Structure formats: C-alpha cells, structure tokens
Amino acid sequence: MSHRFRNLLGIEPLTREDIAFILEQSRPFQEIQRHPLKKLATLRGKSVVLAFFESSTRTRISFGTAASRLGADSMNLQAESSSLRKGESLIDTVKTLDAMKPDCLVMRHSSSGAPHFVQQHLEIPVINAGDGTHAHPTQALLDALTILDRKGCLDNLNVTIIGDILHSRVARSNIQLLGKFGARFTLCGPAMWLPRELETLAPPGSSIRRVSTIEDAVRDADVVMVLRVQQERLHEPALPLDDYILLYQLTPERLRLAPPGAIVMHPGPMIRGLEIDPAVADCPQSCILEQVTNGLAVRMALLFLLIGGSHEDAKDVLHAAR
Amino acid sequence: MLLVKNGRVLDPASGTDVVLDILLDSDRIAQVAPAINAPGAEVLDASGLIVAPGFIDLHCHLREPGEEYKETIETGTRAAARGGFTAVCCMPNTKPVNDNASVTRSIIERASAAGSVRVWPVGAASLGSKGEALAEIAAMKSAGIVAVSDDGRPIASAKLLRQVMDYCQSLGLPVIDHCEDASLSAGGVMREGPTSVRMGLRGIPACAESIAVARGVQIAALTGGRFHVAHLSCRESLDQVRAAKAKGLRVTCEVTPHHFTLTDEHVTGYDTRFKMNPPLASREDRDALIAGLADGSVDCIATDHAPHDAASKDVEFDKAPFGITGFETVLALALGKLVHTNRIGLMRMVELFTIGPARILGITRSVAPGELADLTLFSADHEWTFRAADSASKSRNTPFDNAAFSGGPMATIIAGKIVWRR
Description:
The complex is a heterodimer.
Chain A: H1 16-34, E1 47-52, H2 58-69, E2 73-78, H3 90-98, E3 104-109, H4 114-119, E4 126-131, H5 137-151, E5 158-162, H6 169-180, E6 184-188, E7 207-211, H7 214-218, E8 223-226, H8 241-248, H9 252-255, E9 263-265, H10 278-281, H11 288-308, H12 311-321
Parallel strand pairs in A: 1-2, 1-3, 3-4, 5-6, 5-8, 6-7, 8-9
Chain B: E1 2-11, E2 16-25, E3 28-33, E4 42-45, E5 50-53, E6 55-60, H1 73-82, E7 85-90, H2 101-114, E8 118-123, H3 137-143, E9 147-149, H4 158-171, E10 175-177, H5 182-185, E11 190-191, H6 194-199, E12 203-204, H7 207-223, E13 227-229, H8 235-246, E14 251-255, H9 257-261, H10 283-295, E15 300-301, H11 310-313, H12 330-339, H13 346-353, H14 355-361, E16 375-385, E17 404-414, E18 417-421
Helix pairs in contact in B: 2-3, 4-7, 7-8
C-alpha cells in the first residue's frame, strides 16, 4: 500500500490514518538519531532544494540535516542571498530551481499560501516548512511525535496554547492535527491575538475555548504549548512587554496548577524570561529539546516518503535502522 | 437609420414592457411604436430579445494612460461593448492621474478615436489623488468629467471630503468615494472573518468600509452635497446609506457583481483572481446586498472592472494587486444571481444598469423619441459559457472563467450604430 499524499502543504487534508502512518514511519528515524553513525544511503543521488525565502535557523538546519542523514544532497536558497532581492518573482525563482532537477522542494515563505501557489507550477513534491501565519505542518507532526512519546497516545487530550494565536502558524497546524484526534483546546493570550473566529478552526470532534487568564488555561492541561512572542508584533498595537510577562509568562507557580503529568512544549526560538520562565524551560515536564530531535526524525520520514517512495521501501529502512 | 424590430422593450423610466419597434435616426431615437415601417432603414431583428436603454457602468478602470499593458481605452471599451455597455465612467487612477483638464481631454480624444463605447471620465478629487490640494475640478468639468473621486484610495481626510463636496455641489458633480478607513485596513488582503483566520491572511474588518461611509454621509448632511459610495460591500454600510436616504440626503451607492455573487469563502485556494478591494464579504453581507438591490436601497450595479496583467496576479496572494475584470460577465451574473433566482424582476435589473447610474450622473435614459439612440439588447435565457481567453479585454483576471450562464448581452447600439453583436 502506498501513501496517498504527494505534497505536504498543510495538516488539513491529512486523515488520522495518514498522520499515524507518518508518525510510525518516523520511529526508525528516531532510533537513527541515537546511533553513533547516523548517515543512511537511502536517498543517495537525490537532491532537495531548501528554499527559505523567510529567514530560519532551526527548521532550515533540521531539514538540511535530515536530507544529509538520508544521503541526499541539498541545495540552499536563503532569504539574504535570494534573487527575490533583485526583483525576480517567486514563480520565476522556483522554476529556475526546478530546472536544476531537484527531487523535492522544501519551502518557507512569509506569505500565507505561497507553497500552495508554487506547487501548482511544479511536478516535484513540495513540503511546506512554514508559510506566513498559515501553517507549519512539520512542526505539528514533530510535536505529535513528542506528545506520543511522552503521553503514549494522541487521543482526546486537553491542549493549552498560550500566546499570539492569531499570527501563529504553529498553533494553526497543531489545532488541525490534534483536533483530528479529538483534542479540547484552550487558547490563552491577549485579546487582540485571540479573535472569536479562532473557535471555528476546531476540526469536527474537537473543541476550542478561549480564556483570558493563564491560571484558568493551564488547570486541566495535558499539554501546554508556549508560543514565541514575536516582538515585532508587540508594537501593533503596542503591548508593553512587562504586561505580557505579568499576564502570560509560564512560571513554575502557574505550571503547578496543571496536572503533574502535563508536558510543556515550545516551537522555538524561545526567549527565556519573556514567554517562559527559565525554570520551566529546564524542568522535567519540558520537552523542548526532544521536539528538536524529533524534528529530524519526522523530516527524514517525510523526505523519504515523498522522494523515496513506497511503504515496502519504508519497511527496509525500518529494518536497516535496527 | 436603424430599425430595431420586435424586441421586448423594457424602459424603467416609463415603465414600458411591451414588444415594440424602435427607429433610430443617427444619434437620436426617432420613433417608438408597434410595427414601424421605415423603407431604406437597416433592420435589426430583436425577436425574442429584450431591448433596454443603453447600459451605463459608473465604475471601471481603463488603465490608459500609463498602464497600457493591462488595458487600453480601445480594448477596455471593446470589452464593455461586449458586456452590453454603451457608456463607461473610467476612474482617474491612471498614470498620470486624471487630475487636470489635459489628461481628461486626452482620454476623451483617445476614446473618440479608438473607443467602442462612450467614455465618461471621472476626475481626481485631489491633485495626484494624494489627498492634499484640490484638483482643478472646474477645468476638468469643462473638459468632460462627469464626477470626481480619488478611487483606488479613499478621499484622504474628512476635511478634504468636505471641501470637495462643497465645491462639487457648485459645479453640479457627484463625489464618489472609495470608502475605506486606511488605518483599519492597512496590510489587509481579504475580509476579516473565519476564513481569513483559517488561512492566515491578514483581514480587513467590514467596519473599515462602514466607518468611512458614515463619514461621507455626515459630511453630505453638513454640505448638502451629492455623495456616492463606490463598490459598497457590507450590510452596515448599506444600513447607513438607507438611513441617509430616509433623511432625504443626496446619498447613493453602487454594488459590484462579484460582491452580490461571491463571498470570502471563495478565497480558500489562495487564488488571486478572488482578490479585490473591497474584499469579498461574508454570506450575511452578500445577502444584505442582494436585499438592497431588491428593495431600492442600492442605486446601481457597477463593475469596478479592474484589469491586471497575468504577471502581476501570478504571485503570492498577499503580494497580488486588488481587482478583477467585470464588463463581459456582469449582465449574466445579474440575470443568474438576481433575476433567475427571483430576487428582483427584469425591469428592476434594467433600472440598475440604466436610470440608476443615470440619475447619479444627473442625466436621463429612456427608450423614447428624442432620447440618445443608445440601446442594449440582451437575452434572458440563452445558454453560453464565458471564456476569459476569448475576452476582448487585455487582461484575464476573472474568477468567472469557464462559468456557464443563462442569458447575456446580444447587441450594443450607440448613437444609432451597432457597435457589437453576438
């Protein structure tokens, strides 16, 4: 049986089975991260374009490392050196990259929907590595893998997300993914980042409520996701930093209101002392660094599935990894 | 001499709805009667068709001068003729801006040399539409403008709007405002609502429009001037126009075909052909506009025909320019979405294309002896498919490519001449 997706633009089109399949495919690649020798030859001779039109450190390095550990070459396009700076249109840039015959395009862009637009002009698979304030599907998948490791199950979780939900692609993709497994979401943050319309994002079988105090938000949480505060957004309209810290910083006292088994996640980059207290970032409930490691596994699995092919091959890799 | 025979004449000015012959003698209507005998006249058989006074489009962008790669007066007016229009009002946001009499004259000269339909320019309200100093409105009026607007953007300040409305009242010109509070809409690319939140696109709240409508209505009350709301898109704005009319203020509004047809939910695929300003609104707003078209609160249908070259639109959604083409699909959309659904009658629809805009411009439109020999012939039911590739416009930026329609334009007659015939 072959999987049915050709691109990964967002979580919305995936079924629960698709998601479970990707996570299962990620397992052997998790093991590889613990091996002394981490490099496979699975995708030798294949090449991946990493087109990061918006600057990124962790996601770009994660995809680059994932490609490298599968034996694939990567071609890098970075925002700073981009031909876009010289006035070339996105579609011309992407067609130029495509003419170098890569096997996959991994793309980050500051415009929501940019990968969807580009994909219509390409034959090769496109992986969305974050588009504007829309989606970040690989983050949601690596978060799911991390939750699965810690909680053993993705079903019917109480998930609390704190911060600038309106502008967060991480929050949107996580809502889509965990919502398919019946999550009950509690969203918390300043009112201008928490519009009523967010409640309509809940997939069937899930629910979203908005609360204004972090104490209420964490109380029944199985998972607490802390979002990065995009400082550039604080000025639109101005929200004093001190107010944000006072009202929304995840502190040890606030985390204690949650059940003892609650886990703390952060998509990074994290600013200690702003959205999260350093003591929380480093506590045993925190799985922030596991998220990073799992990012490699999930991205290896996705590159393998989209470039490498079939389920049968996947079994071979599974075997090889052991 | 042109004899239009056996058409069902729909004339909102007189309420006429009967099969009649119409004899056109050069630029005037000579006779309207059953079974006219006019030996030597060219005969156009309009059996089975509806014959209406010539349609007027109060709001379009012909892009000339300055952006001839998007549209020219020649191509734009050819598309207008194919849409059944006999006259179009072109907005001043050309390059250079139509803010002085020489630009106005050049547009009119170009239109008389290469245009298929009458072109009635709208002059800028302020110099360069920059919202600072008044444009030379009186000089433009002598050159032929029919209204003023800074369309493409709102008239920048309440104070300027007041000056313009005062001044235009003495000149007998309506003031058309693109109603938008720029501080609320800044950076927005679609209507704010569940769809914008889902798609991660920056939203423009409906009140960005209605706040500016309220400003205009109150300044119309202050000055007694004629205030026309361009491309009105939401219920709250319409309620303000209704209330203003009830108070006897000289406030009017237009609605575009896309706003009574589509909603923000159509933006789901990041397709830039659904990006325009004002953006597509909610279902509730769309339904309110249809109700307003039916109950008389809306004065006219205007296309806001806004052609863009393929390269400008083939980009990321948030980087694409606003606007879609509209001439060739508007009548079919009005028939399909308003008439065939029994929301309005044929006579009311014709009114929205004829005496509706004419009243705003302070002119008459009627199928009667002595009136302009401009007629629009259409069918209410023939099946056809619109193909953007076959459009007369230079641009293809329409969400209605390959739409199947029932009814549409069949012939356009201007000054007694058939300028287009299906």
